[in-house]
Amino acid sequence: MNDWKIFHGNREPHQGISTLPNAPSWRQFKRQLDVNEKVLKAHWQDILNLVKEDSREYQRGKSFRVFSPPPGSDQVNPESPGKKGKIYQAYQELIDGVNAAIYLRRPLLVTGRPGSGKTSLAYAIAYELQLGPVLAWSITTRTILQNGLYNYDAIARLQNLQLLKLKQDLGQEAPQQLEENIGQYLQLGPVGTAFLPSYQPRVLLIDEIDKSDINLPNDLLNLFEEGGYSIPELERLQTQEVTVRTADFGLTTEIQGGQVQCNKFPIVVMTSNGERDFPAPFLRRCLRVRMPEPHDYEFLSQVVNAHFAKELGEKYWQEAQGTINQLIQDFVTKQQGKEVATDQLLSTIYLFSRQVQPDAMDQESLKQLLLKRLDSSVDQ
User: Is residue 6 part of a domain?
Assistant: First the structure.
């Protein structure tokens, strides 16, 4: 049987997204707007040109790797006794969840401990499937849906109107002039940009949605169900087509009649630290997975290798192996029954693998500092 997976989590970029079949009938949106494939393809190239290989986001996606045991290892068998088989099974469930969300055009809700790699998963998807920059929306307790859709600067528009009145007698032409230029006061947010017509689906990261106001998950339901939204400030204009800025740096798009409708449902990754429950209607519209919590030496070695091997160079990487291996083993021991995150291990290795590094006394003190447990406000 052919491998159905589009996303593999192996850090190897490919064009597999082009083989994605049509959406299920119940996920095909009724309000489809006319799209020009040639225009979409040209705009898609502009989006891909925004990717900077030296950017933090690009490297974040490139470094993320799902647990990949050696061929023939008992770890590839989820029925294997002990924790190793369970680790592999947990990561396979994560990969299956990502692919199911892509096929079904459903948002993916990823729950896990802080520092477990939930956010990095979105960047890994964009990197492997070559889908351009991730559109990231970080949530706070004050966030509302419109913050993610668009921002309309009505105050700036009013100030410009007043300035024009001072400089010249506007007559009857000024209101029309300002109406035609309304797009310069409106910018789409990451969510609004993700639902624009696109040559390929965008990756939308809604980070830490469990920190949101109680109403936000329900506010997202219509967007996820209809695949589009309206901009009232543009709907009331006589001008049918308005050019507005998007969340992609330096890029604009045309909005017709104040309506935005996706033709490719974005790959939506929502992360949660598990700090709250979500309403059933919201959960029904999502696919839910849990980010595995790696406690295995071999898996952590792969994570560390992905982050540091190239940076340190082959020669020094080999020289530092003894120190790094011991730190990984110490971390595995520290994890037993305690809340510690993988990024704490990476921070420790970063400090201890430099050519200029702390002495033995400082190292022990730093390990205690960097590997403090996360499930307590008490320093221990």
Answer: no
Convert the pLDDT of each residue in 15-40 to its tens digit: 999 999 999 999 988 666 667 889 99
Residues 269 and 311 in one domain: no
The rounded percent of the chain whose pLDDT value lies above 70 is 82
Alpha helices in the chain (DSSP H): 37-48, 56-63, 83-104, 118-129, 145-149, 154-167, 173-180, 190-194, 216-226, 232-235, 280-284, 297-312, 314-319, 321-335, 342-352, 360-370
Do residues 160 and 216 touch, judged by C-beta distance below 8 A? no
Domain membership of residue 148 (yes or no) is: yes
Find out whether 286 and 109 touch, Cβ atoms under 8 Å.
yes
Are 318 and 361 contained in the same domain?
yes
DSSP bridge pairs for 150:
188
What's the pTM? 0.85
What residues make up the domain containing 218? 16-290
Return d(Cα 228, Cα 216) in angstroms, integer: 16
Query: Is 378 contained in some domain?
Result: no
- Alpha helices in 262-296, H assignment, sequence order: 280-284
Residue 368, pLDDT > 60, answer yes
Residues 118 and 228 in one domain: yes
Q: pLDDT by residue (tens digit) across 99-136?
A: 999 999 999 999 998 888 899 999 999 999 999 999 99
Angle, CA of 372, 274 and 271, to the nearest 5°: 95
